[in-house]
């Protein structure tokens, strides 16, 4: 693994040393949570490094920024190139890539739109988001914290402030000995995890909460809906009660960082007879082929990472 002092961060058009990627302490985003971001993965393939669903992530970043009145000073193709350059400069695989849009100049005041809108992109080594062994199943807790209604905070936007409820729910679950939390929506239906969407399987049908449960429209979620359909499983987006979830044959989380994580227990209720269950295993197997470029049908989901036109010098130790 590359030492942190050898990494580069893309900031407003240039690659800087990891230690020099700094913002002002009075920037608007730090104080009010008005920032939008993405989580993106790069994987090794036989054809070289590739980024999973790059265009879809960039399109969501731009849409999120628009909802929060932040005009990104770069076009979608320029943002894609910044992400590709960041990945190439860091040469980490598999990696987790974090583009973030923020107001970088000092701009206090909740309604202040004067601060400069900036874009930064970082890449770090990808780890198991829900812990080592999460591919065999995690324990989750129904959280006492609810997912905010989209009338309060637009759930379409992947914004910094939207994760406060997930933060509180996740810490609460960890203190109780669980790996993850499951948030309900304001009406008591299943919404999502702290940073993942959720699926359940019953009688070989795949179910997941829909927009009415104030979920983030996850790009991995969208991919899994397509893969499950292609494998021949009926997929249903609907309101899901806690009882439906607790009595499911199988359940799993999906997300860029978490990938696909089976759920073996929810609030002391065992889920299914084994973890992962057979449908989950089949979806995981296909997903792994897809992200590593082993199924040509899904080749459009991968964007090759070319070498930098001008290699960036490493920071001196």
Keyword list:
317 residues, alpha+beta, D-amino Acid Aminotransferase, Chain A, domain 1, D-amino Acid Aminotransferase, Chain A, domain 2, 9-stranded mixed beta sheet, 8-stranded antiparallel beta sheet, globular
Fraction of residues in H or I helices: 10-25%
Kindly, what is the distance between the CA atoms of the first and last residues, rounded to a whole number of angstroms?
A: 16 Å
Structural class: alpha+beta
The level-1 CATH class of the largest domain: Alpha Beta
CATH architecture of the largest domain: Alpha-Beta Barrel
Strand/helix succession = EEHEEEHHEEEHEEEEHEHEEEHE
Which shape, going by the Cα principal axes? globular
CATH-assigned fold name of the largest domain: D-amino Acid Aminotransferase, Chain A, domain 2
Report the CATH superfamily of the largest domain. D-amino Acid Aminotransferase, subunit A, domain 2
Structure description:
With 317 residues, the protein is α+β, with helices and mostly antiparallel strands. The chain has two domains: 4-125, Aminotransferase class 4, branched-chain amino acid transferase, N-terminal domain (D-amino Acid Aminotransferase, Chain A, domain 1, 2-Layer Sandwich), CATH 3.30.470; 134-295, D-amino Acid Aminotransferase, subunit A, domain 2 (D-amino Acid Aminotransferase, Chain A, domain 2). 24% of the residues lie in helices and 27% in strands. Strands 8, 9, 10, 11, 12, 13, 14, 15 and 16 form a nine-stranded mixed beta sheet that branches. Strands 1, 2, 3, 4, 5, 6, 7 and 17 form an eight-stranded antiparallel beta sheet that branches. It is globular, with a radius of gyration of 20 Å. The two termini are 16 Å apart.
């Amino acid at each position: 693994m590359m030492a942190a002092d050898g990494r580069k961060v893309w900031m407003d058009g240039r690659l800087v040393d990891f230690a020099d990627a700094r913002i002002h302490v009075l920037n608007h985003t730090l104080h009010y949570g008005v920032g939008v971001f993405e989580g993106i993965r790069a994987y090794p393939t036989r054809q070289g490094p590739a980024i999973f669903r790059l265009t879809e992530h960039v399109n969501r970043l731009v849409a999120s920024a628009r909802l929060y009145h932040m005009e990104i000073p770069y076009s979608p193709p320029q943002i894609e190139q910044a992400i590709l350059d960041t990945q190439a400069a860091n040469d980490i695989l598999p990696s987790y890539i974090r583009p973030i849009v923020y107001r970088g100049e000092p701009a206090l005041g909740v309604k202040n739109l004067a601060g400069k809108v900036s874009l930064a992109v970082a890449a770090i080594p990808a780890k198991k988001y829900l812990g080592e062994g999460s591919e065999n199943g995690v324990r989750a807790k129904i959280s006492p914290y609810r997912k905010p209604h989209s009338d309060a905070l637009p759930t379409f936007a992947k914004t910094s402030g939207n994760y406060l409820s997930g933060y509180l729910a996740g810490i609460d679950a960890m203190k109780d000995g669980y790996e993850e939390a499951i948030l309900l929506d304001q009406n008591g239906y299943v919404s999502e995890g702290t940073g993942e969407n959720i699926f359940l399987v019953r009688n070989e049908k795949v179910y997941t909460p829909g927009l009415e449960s104030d979920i983030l429209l996850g790009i991995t979620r969208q991919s899994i809906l397509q893969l499950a359909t292609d494998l021949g499983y009926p997929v249903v987006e609907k309101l899901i009660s806690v009882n439906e979830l607790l009595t499911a044959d199988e359940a799993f989380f999906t997300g860029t960082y978490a990938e696909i994580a089976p759920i073996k227990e929810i609030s002391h209720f065992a889920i299914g007879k084994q973890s992962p269950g057979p449908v989950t295993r089949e979806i995981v197997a296909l997903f792994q082929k897809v992200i590593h470029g082993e199924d040509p049908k899904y080749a459009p989901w991968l964007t090759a990472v070319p070498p930098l036109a001008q290699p960036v010098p490493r920071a001196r130790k």
